[in-house]
Amino acid sequence: MAQDKPVRVRFAPSPTGYLHVGGARTAIYNYFFAKATGGTFYLRIEDTDRKRYNEEALKDLMRDLKWLGLQWDEGPGCEGGCGPYFQSERLDIYHREIQKLLDSGDAYYCFCTEERLQEVRAAQEKAGVSVTGYDRHCRNISREEAEARIAAGEKAVIRFKVPETGVTEFDDMIRGHIEYQNELLDDLVLIKRDGYPTYHFASVVDDHLMGTTHVLRGDEWISSTPKHMLLYKAFGWEPPKWVHLPVILDKNGGKLSKRKGAASVGDFRDLGYLPETLVNYLALLGWNPGDDREVMTVKEMVDCFTLERINPKSASFDEKKLQWMNGQHIHQCDDEFLAGFMMEGLKAKGINVDGEPKERIAEIVKLLKPRAHFMQDLADQSVYFFVAPATYDEKGKSKQWGPGSKEIASAVRNALANVETFTTPNIEKAFMDLTVSRGCKLGDLVGAVRLAVSGVTAGPGLWELFEVVGKEETLRRIDVALPMMG
RNA sequence: GGCGAUAUCGUCUAGUGGUCUAGGACGCUGGCCUCUCACGCCGGUAACAUGGAUUCGAAUUCCAUUAUCGCUACCA
Q1: Which residues are paired to A50 by β-bridges?
Q2: Quick one: pLDDT band at residue A1, thresholds 50, 70, 90?
Q3: pLDDT for A367-419, tens place per residue?
Q4: CA A155, A161, A162: angle at the middle one, nearest 5?
């Protein structure tokens, strides 16, 4: 399947809401495909619905795409030769192009009102006819009459004159050959009453004019593709290659929606996922590299990306696996980056870490890194290295601070007090010696003091933990907790 | 209703007529490691939607059925 011309693909969102992970994945595949083939990835804003336009959504959209690392080669902010990249700024182009269709007789003015359309629809429903849609009431109004009526102030839309017979077929790169009977298609609106183009018209005109070679879009567009094919034909343009992507469903096979949980890129960022994780996971949801690799960098994925390995089946989003993958990516982050993220998190909690030695921060990151599943785990779990616990885990209290624990904790405290150089090996030795002299197990010694020093029952190895907290502070925290023990 | 797409473990997937008593990953689970929790390592669990047809042979091809999703807007 040789590419005769350089690949040009686009992500063409409508700025009506947040960037849904499904949309994000469409953007990812477009981006991967462009990068894998040395082509161009451009961003086009489909803002032809003035009622649903949302300025905030547009800003978020671009921010989230950038956060994911999907920087466009052309588009808002980096104009290329095919702008403008906002459809709302291309109205003159659509009006110029529609004239061609009007001239050739492939499009016509339609004066039907919303009310009449509704009546037609209702009647069709009642009659139970199989073919529904616009009844082509205005199809045969002459151009002269139509223009006269418009000149007289009547409002109209412009519809496409779809052939009444025949078959329209196209090949989808991941689904193969698809055919539609033209008689099932209705005369879709091309230019709306407000003068704006519909999606169908604008996307066809733009994909052609902007040189799109492959259209990668959600599979909800499959049924519209024959209409788009017919438009290309009417214009005499060569259609792009079609690549309809499967959708992403939630755990239960329903739509992934905000109401049911996280659904947008921003949601997952707030939850503590790395962009690398999200891109990796989303890419693997419906595509595979051809081998067993799963945790991959963008470069690794781009290097082996092909459209042929995209699955036609829609996939359920599994947040458990996402979590696991985030842990994997956190393990691969360099410590310095994690340290920066951790310190910001601590600052946000009101903990001043400015004076902390770099080595100490690095040591903490080293201890916490293999335990982190979310980025905020770093800050959340490191608080006790900087501030003594104000409260203690309730379950831990009843389990670790029961009868006899005070005596054990005191013994540990005294043993620790005698450790001159408070380092991990020395601390460990103190504990070991204590098990010998007391004739007990290590497990008997650690629970109570871990809770006393950290406030929680889970965490890094105790010796390391104590070393980083420091001798004086460790002893002090044990002293504070001693009276609470039984 | 009509049209279309899809159909392998709970989930993501490998698999393109024999090497499949179906492989990997997440999850769940047993164990190892061990001062806790993680990490890591070893093992287990679990699937070709159904019915026909083609074929010496089908998860793989074809046809039905079923189920799910999508479209059926002057929304994208």
Answers
A1: none
A2: very low
A3: 999 999 999 999 999 999 999 999 999 999 999 999 999 999 999 999 999 99
A4: 140
Choose among A222, A225, A226: nearest CA to A183.
Answer: A226
CATH topology for A333-387?
Answer: Helicase, Ruva Protein; domain 3 (1.10.8)
- Give the catalytic positions of A in this structure: 258
Supply the Cα-derived Rg of chain A in whole angstroms: 32
Query: Phi and psi (nearest 5°) for A143?
Result: -55, -40
Nucleotide nearest to A200 (CA to C1'): B76
Domain boundaries, chain A: 90-245, 333-387, 394-484
Q: Given CATH 3.40.50.620, say whether it is the number of domain A90-245.
A: yes
What whole-number distance in Å separates Cα of residue A330 and Cα of residue A334?
Answer: 8
Tell me which long-range contacts A282-291 makes (C-beta under 8 A, separation of at least 24): A282/A21, A282/A24, A282/A25, A282/A28, A282/A248, A283/A25, A283/A28, A283/A29, A283/A32, A285/A25, A285/A248, A285/A315, A285/A317, A286/A25, A286/A245, A286/A246, A286/A248, A286/A310, A286/A311, A286/A313, A286/A314, A286/A315, A287/A29, A287/A311
Indicate if CB(A459) is under 7 A from strand B.
yes
CB A28 within 8 A of CB A310: no
CATH topology of domain A394-484: Arc Repressor Mutant, subunit A (1.10.10)
Query: Is the CB of residue A458 less than 8 Å from the CB of residue A450?
Result: no
**Residue A162 scores a pLDDT above 70:** yes
Token pair for A455: 């406030």
Contact, A447 CB vs strand B, < 7 Å: yes
Asked whether residue A327, judged by its CB, lies under 7 Å from any atom of the DNA or RNA strand B, the reply is: yes
- C-alpha A288/C-alpha A32 separation (Å) is 13
Query: Which strands make up the sheet holding A107-110, listed edge to edge?
Result: A107-110, A157-160, A189-191
Going along A12-150, which residue ranges are E strands?
Answer: 40-43, 107-110
Inform me whether the pLDDT recorded for A2 exceeds 50.
no
Nucleotide nearest to A16 (CA to C1'): B76
- The kind and range of the H/E element at A167 are strand A167-172
> A160 versus A3: which is more confidently predicted?
A160
Q: Which nucleotides of B are covered by protein (CB under 7 A)?
A: 1-8, 10-15, 23-28, 34-40, 68-76
Our measurement of CA A444 to C1' B32, in angstroms, reads 22
How far is Cα A231 from Cα A178, in angstroms, rounded to an integer?
Answer: 17
The phi, psi pair for A206, rounded to 5°, reads -70, -45
